[in-house]
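1st attempt posting a full record on here, be nice pls
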Amino acid sequence: MSRKLEIILGPTAVGKTSYAIRRALEVGSPVISCDSRQIFQELKIGTAAPSEEELAAVQHYFIRCIPVTRNYTAGIYEAEAMQLVNRLFAEGHETLVMCGGSMMYIDAFCYGLDDFPEVPLQLRQHLMECLRDEGVEVLAQQLKELDPVSYEEIDISNGQRVIRALEVSMYTGQPFSSYKTRSFKERDFEIEKIGLERPREELYERINARVVKMVEDGLEAEARAMLPYRDLPALQTVGYREMFEYFDGAYDLETTIRHIQASTRHYAKRQLTWWRRDENIRWINCSTL
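the predicted structure (as tokens):
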């Protein structure tokens, strides 16, 4: 198979963007982003989206192109990214570079998604209101009762993930996990997964420093502009959630920064736990590059 797509993946702050740009320049490819938050137009600082200089170095796709008000899903990404990849291969590219840390988006692209039923918008809005008023713990307990398998499998601190599993279980009367058939779709090109890693303490230092820089670069103002949209799925995101709590008066700024750093470190740990199960990933220690 002569056509190949390389997926540069790894935990947040490990250095995926710079590595992907270098690799893209080597093979003459654009960078196809596979990040579920950098895709939103309004979320630049808090998502660590590529800088203007990085965007100028090589063409990027799926970076800051969707408004936060649009309900963009992994299924939509799978379809649009596959259409783009097929077009780029048809134009003569032999090797393409994809880059991102979103586990669901990467799995959707590589394997396809299960056929989940559509759920009425009213139910989702109701659950979003419950999330805001009662907290994710209440919804997670409901999920545990309706679908203990999903409760054990998903990140129950992520309100959006909990709502997705809960709404399907409530609407259909069948556990969300029962729809996960995992009948993989065949791709007519080779996929190589390249995982970037660093020693844990080094990665955590990079995460902590990046959060401080985000605040210095204007994260507070960016999050404040998103207050009217705080209940939308796009804003159920590390950094913005903590800032909204700060605006509510729950914490001072210094404590908020520490919470963002801790949440980001926890997210990086979950990413690595997810990918360590995949034997097809070739891991590279960035510290030796």
